[in-house]
Amino acid sequence: MRIELQKRARVSTLFSVLSPLLALALTLLFGAIMFWLLGKNPVSALYSFFIEPLLEVWSLHELAIKAAPLILIAVGLSVCYRSNNWNIGAEGQFTIGAITGSILPVLYPAWHSPMILPLMLILGMLGGALYAGIPALLKTRFNTNEILTSLMLVYIAQLYLDWLVRGPWRDPQGNNFPITKTFQIEAVVPEILSSSGRAHWAFIFAIVAAVALWFMMRFMLKGFEVSVLGQSERAGRFAGFSARRMVWFSMLLSGALAGLAGISEVSGSIGHLQPIISPGYGFTAIIVAFLGRLNPLGIIASGLVLALTYLGGEAAQLSIGISDKVSRVFQGLLLFFVLSCDTLIHYRIRLIFSGMKTGEVKG
Amino acid sequence: MTLSEGPAAVPLLSVRGLTKLFGSFAACNAIDLDIAPGEIRALLGENGAGKSTLVKMLFGVLQPSAGEMLWEGSPVTIGSPGEARRLGIGMVFQHFSLFEALTVAENIALSLDPKISLARISDEAASLSKAYGLPLDPKAHVADLSVGERQRIEIVRALLQNPKLIILDEPTSVLTPQEADRLFETLFKLKAEGRSVLYISHRLEEVRRICDRATVLRHGKVTGACDPKHETPASLARMMVGSDVAEVHRDAGTALGDIRIEVRNLSVPARTPFAVSLKNIAMNVRAGEVLAIAGVAGNGQGELFDVLSGEYPVAEDEAIRIRGKAVGRTGINGRRLLGAGFVPEERHGHAAVSAMALSDNLLLARSQSDRKAFLSGGAFSVIRFDAIRSATRRICEAMDVRKSGEDPQAGSLSGGNLQKFIVGRELDRQPSVLVVNQPTWGVDAGAASRIRQALIDLAKSGSAVVVISQDLDEIFEVATNIAVISEGRLSEPHPAGTLTLERIGLLMGGVHESHSVPEAAHAH
């Protein structure tokens, strides 16, 4: 027996719209089964995982903090994916952006100027963009697969950060902890409403980036170019668009946004560099991008949903007493169901029972 | 017409009244064909004559709409390529289905019973390739092999099934002359063993050289059977092209204006193993002229279009001039800004993005040439949707594009209507130069005549038009001058009135320019 995917003659518009919601529902269902198998009450577990974090103002601030990097990275990735360039290494660009953005506060801790923060953000974007430029260069020059190169560069970036904070950038007064000096106050991304919680300007950056890229994709020739080249390189060439330049554009753009997310996170949420600065934002953002249907406005919503799984994981640890790795499980379930719902919208499954004919070549 | 009868025995394969309908269109119409054991049979015909359809039915890829097939005298239905192979029919396709990363033996193993060990396959392949003069290293990776060697894999793969009939689809179109000679030796060996070969080609010289009998197809019907050794290339060409081409009607004595397209010493190496290199192309197209470029598919038409349009600019800036300006290194939009318009052959994924709306597809071709009308906001280049929608409406009205809804996806239109839109998209700009590749390929008759009329009218209004086409009827209908492209070489243009079908057929069949036709036929 074998399983075949057959393309459907018609794609249901209704289910294309419903597919993210369907995926969410299935994720919750399987989450409930998982809690039940772990010996917890599924209803109360789901409640403390997904509802409780939304009931208090400080916790909504935490949600914004977690959603900001996800949205920032995912909107960049959405442009990349729409143009048929597969940047999987946003986590690495996030890390490098955090490092280059931290150069000023780490090396010049005594510099107190309002200029420092904008410069840090720009350096962070530059760092992320340049790091994404490596797979772009390899792809345009040597036709290398950017999925592999960008992914492998993630581990290089993480190990480089590890080496920096344990070696040259370690705070001499830090009791040998592998962290840098705490950033001076001018180098910290300010909070939006400091009276009620910690959420900082990164969330505003994320919303601005999402709206700007939505405008670009919807109304500007550049967005048109992205979708044409993503759907047919040959038609793009006929239109006079260059696929090579699009590799550069989309990789540098997504890299810059990931770098901005990185420095904003380090400066706004952590306050110094340390070996681990991200709970996998760069990878989770891939799920965010697809759950948001690669539409920047949809990504704002899906970014908030995925941020909730992080918060829920923390809550689960406290109130239900299970590992916060459960948030990874939820993210995995969600990606699995999003992709399989999309697949089933385009294909039907057929089981073929007869023994496979040998020597068959499709003509 | 002389017909040298094959051996009197029962034919190996006999086909009676074989018909294949696509909708109401008969790609093959009541075809009769007998293939005797141990003969090399040629199947000749232009593109679209129905050769591929016929062969696909013989190999079980397509099912006939009517007619019967007899294998060694008993009726058979061939439901799949697997069944064809079990009967003893092997096929070597024009484009190979090989995995480049695998070795020769591994590729062969893929088409065989999975139980047979790789070592045994290697041994058998090696001994077969030796026996038939097809040198091949079973351990070599396909990626490292030449096109000719890759074809040998396909042939060995077919031979491993011990077939009685081997079908070769345009086998020499990808080979060098030396490789082709080697292939012919193999074919003679197969014939000596009593196997039959069905040899599909449009190359008249080689058909004369190796084939015992030839069957000629035109418009889905058998139009002739002959012994090619008793024919000249000219008489074969006449059978292939036919002498019943539609009446030519053109305005006499249209005054031609200045040179709009000038091509000099244009040579371009092939981009891929399946592409054709362009060799020393030269042409002038004047205002008011339609230059039609005839030729059998795969002789460099696509490549010529790519460099004329600027999708693939060439190194030598002076090689191409549009309205006097050297544009060899200029991209497609730069050439459009000089007043040129382009219509590629492939509608889906080249001339249009199927999943995008018609108005988006209008922008596709005209975002730079109509920048002022379609874009606003300066450097932001914000699309003026109202402007592109109203222009889309205008084009659809002018070309009578039938569509469902106001601005449907390009993919939802029929081939003819989408082609009318794609041509209309360029005509709407009043281009002073238009280059069209296969303007009516796969288009219904009504749309085709509308498009041809539009091309003639455009030239009459003072533009220079280049029409690359495989359809001789179309060429004679629209052309002022005709040139023929063959193996990447372009012949001298001839006034349409002075060129006979015979001559065009010869040029298309790869017999290169010479002063007198009969001599050329014998000189080769």
Quick summary of this structure?
The complex is a heterodimer of chains A (363) and B (524). Chain A is mainly alpha-helical and 363 residues long.
Structure, explained:
The complex is a heterodimer of chains A (363) and B (524). Helix content of chain A is 68%, strand content 3%. Chain A is mostly helical. Chain A has a domain at 51-298: ABC transporter involved in vitamin B12 uptake, BtuC (Orthogonal Bundle). In chain A, helix 3 packs across helix 12 (281-291), helix 3 packs across helix 13 (296-320) and helix 6 runs antiparallel to helix 11 (243-270). The model of chain A is unreliable at 355-363 (pLDDT under 50). Chain B is an alpha/beta fold and 524 residues long. Chain B has two domains: 13-241, 3-Layer(aba) Sandwich (Rossmann fold), CATH 3.40.50; 259-523, Rossmann fold. Chain B is built from 18 helices and 23 strands. In chain B, the strands form five sheets. In chain B, strands 13, 16, 19, 20, 21, 22 and 23 form a seven-stranded mixed β-sheet that branches. Chain B has a six-stranded mixed β-sheet with strand order 6-7-8-3-9-10, with helices on both faces. In chain B, strand 7 (165-169), helix 6 (177-192) and strand 8 form a beta-alpha-beta unit. The longest helix of chain B has 16 residues, at 177-192. Chain B starts with 12 loop residues before the first strand and ends with a helix. In chain B, 48% of the residues are buried. The chains are: A mainly alpha (363), B alpha/beta (524). Chains A and B meet through helix 9 and helix 10 of A and helix 2, helix 10, helix 11 and strand 18 of B.
